[in-house]
Amino acid sequence: MILQSFFIEFGAKKALMRIPLTKYGLRELIALPVLFYGIAILVAALSSSGWIWPMAIASILTLAGWAFFRDFEREIPSDDNILIAPADGKVTDIKDLEESEFINQDATRIGIFLSVLDVHVNRTPCTGQVKFIKEVPGLCLNALNSEEASKHNQSTQMGLDCPDHPAGKVLVKQITGAIARRIVCAVKPEDKLVAGQRYGMIKFGSRTELYFPKNEKAQILVKPGDKVRGGKTIMVRFE
Q1: Please, is 86 exposed, middle or buried when counting C-beta atoms within 10 Å of its C-beta (0-12, 13-18, 19+)?
Q2: Which of 41, 181, 204, 221 is most buried by its number of CB atoms within 10 A?
Q3: All domains of the chain, ordered by start, with CATH?
Q4: Rounded to an integer, what distance in angstroms lies between the CA atom of residue 90 and that of residue 100?
Q5: pLDDT, tens digit, for every residue of 155-209?
Q6: End-to-end distance of the chain based on CA atoms, in angstroms?
Q7: pLDDT tens digits, 93-151
Q8: Phi/psi class of residue 204: alpha, beta or left (left: φ > 0; alpha: ψ in -120 to 50)?
């Protein structure tokens, strides 16, 4: 759901760019201008530099902060045999391992690093019902360090039961990074989600992991270094 938009005017043509913002950042969307403009007013009142530069800087910082919470509409692929990216970012690793929290068998993990420039809204990789949610306290290590961040950082895990999907079960793990400090997972057990549906976000740089049971019929369509888009990029196709 889109709660708010702002407009940037530029050039002689006065073109308007509409940037939708996520409801998951409502608190920050209100707090950022209050903070930056409050500081600008204080600086202007205590110095002889005038109002123009402090207010201009406050405007730039506010727009930059709001841009972090952008949330564009995506055209979701309509295919029941795929897993789509749960987040925007860069694929850092693809690894086979044992997943013992929800899938409880050998699984494949695809890790995605989200920089501060990426859209940070998380989406469901396929249609399913929420059967597992677990919040794990931890550190805020650099999310580019795949193994250390996956093992030691604060995270929230969401498990989907997908009886009509070839994967059967899917786990998505939201992980904090060196800058990120808050994970939003706005669903609860027994909620039914459709592929590409927004369900939360990680605020300010992070990592998202997709787990699915190891399957010889699963064709992984991405590789480390690829850029993906949440709700849009097809990461896995089952033959």
Answers
A1: buried
A2: 204
A3: 2-67 (no CATH), 82-238 (2.70.70.10)
A4: 26
A5: 999 999 999 999 999 999 999 988 767 899 999 999 999 999 999 999 876 899 9
A6: 33
A7: 999 999 999 999 999 999 999 998 899 999 999 999 999 999 999 988 888 888 898 99
A8: left
Q: Could you list the active site residues?
A: 206
DSSP-derived 3-state class of residue 222: coil
What contacts 113, CB < 8 A, 6 or more positions away?
A: 89, 90, 92, 143, 144, 207
Q: Which amino acid is at 83?
A: L
Q: Tokens for 47?
A: 């110095």
Q: What are phi and psi of 112, to 5 degrees?
A: -125, 125
CA distance 89 to 237: 19
Contact (CB, 8 A) for 155 and 189:
no
> What is the predicted pLDDT for the residue at 126?
98
Structure tokens, 53: 């530069």
pLDDT at site 146:
85
Q: What are 42's two structure tokens?
A: 């204080």
What's the token pair of residue 44? Answer: 């202007």
Q: Which residues of 106-127 are buried (b: 16+ CB within 10 A; e: fewer)?
A: ebbbbbbbbeeebbbbbbbbbb
Rounded CA gap, 88 and 70, in Å?
12
The residue with greater pLDDT, 90 or 17, is 90
